[in-house]
Specification:
7 helices; alpha+beta
């Protein structure tokens, strides 16, 4: 691999790949096999992401005491479908995830819709690659079918360093915006 290719890789990877800054110290620029390098770097995050996702599911089931404190890195970045700017730091990420937990449980109350488990928040698909997991979810918000994805990235230490949420349709996003605002106000 040429030196410029390695520098380009390291510049693209430095925020999501803790080993990128370590490579120049241990590798000759002329002898690195790019595929091998990529495999070594992602294999450490890959094994951790499975554990992180298991812990995330345990947290959602209420089985992981202080789950968000355990799971989130101090410098975690949260990308909301509602707020334009990334939210940086464990505390703000924790606050948004707790508000989302109150906002996206699905239908609540004693109505027939609330008793229908298909209306409650649930993950329907999971795709894991490298140090990233994409979890597709479904729920209802104000009676509207809603689906989206949580994109979770972890570091080699098993901490979530990035949490992105994307969802649809627009009516659901508007309802979540209103409800999350109310939930966040109550937390302050």
């Amino acid at each position: 691999m040429a030196r410029n290719d390695l520098n380009l890789y390291m510049n693209r990877s430095k925020f999501s790949d803790p080993l990128a800054s370590f490579l120049p110290a241990v590798c000759s620029f002329r002898t690195i096999n790019y595929a091998l390098m990529k495999q070594v770097i992602t294999s450490q995050g890959a094994s951790m992401i499975n554990e992180v996702i298991e812990q995330w599911h345990a947290h959602l089931r209420g089985e992981l005491k202080d789950g968000l404190d355990i799971l989130l890195d101090d410098d975690c970045v949260f990308y909301s479908p509602i707020v334009y700017t990334p939210q940086v730091g464990k505390e703000i990420t924790k606050m948004y995830l707790m508000a989302a937990g109150q906002t996206l449980p699905g239908e609540t109350g004693s109505s027939a819709q609330a008793k229908d488990s298909s209306k409650k928040f649930r993950y329907t698909k999971q795709v894991i690659d490298g140090n990233t997991a994409v979890l597709e979810f479904e729920t209802t918000v104000d009676g509207k079918y809603t689906n989206g994805v949580d994109i979770i990235t972890c570091n080699a230490s098993g901490k979530i360093i990035e949490f992105r949420v994307m969802m649809r349709p627009l009516q659901a996003i508007n309802a979540v915006h209103r409800q999350m605002g109310e939930a966040l106000d109550k937390m302050k």
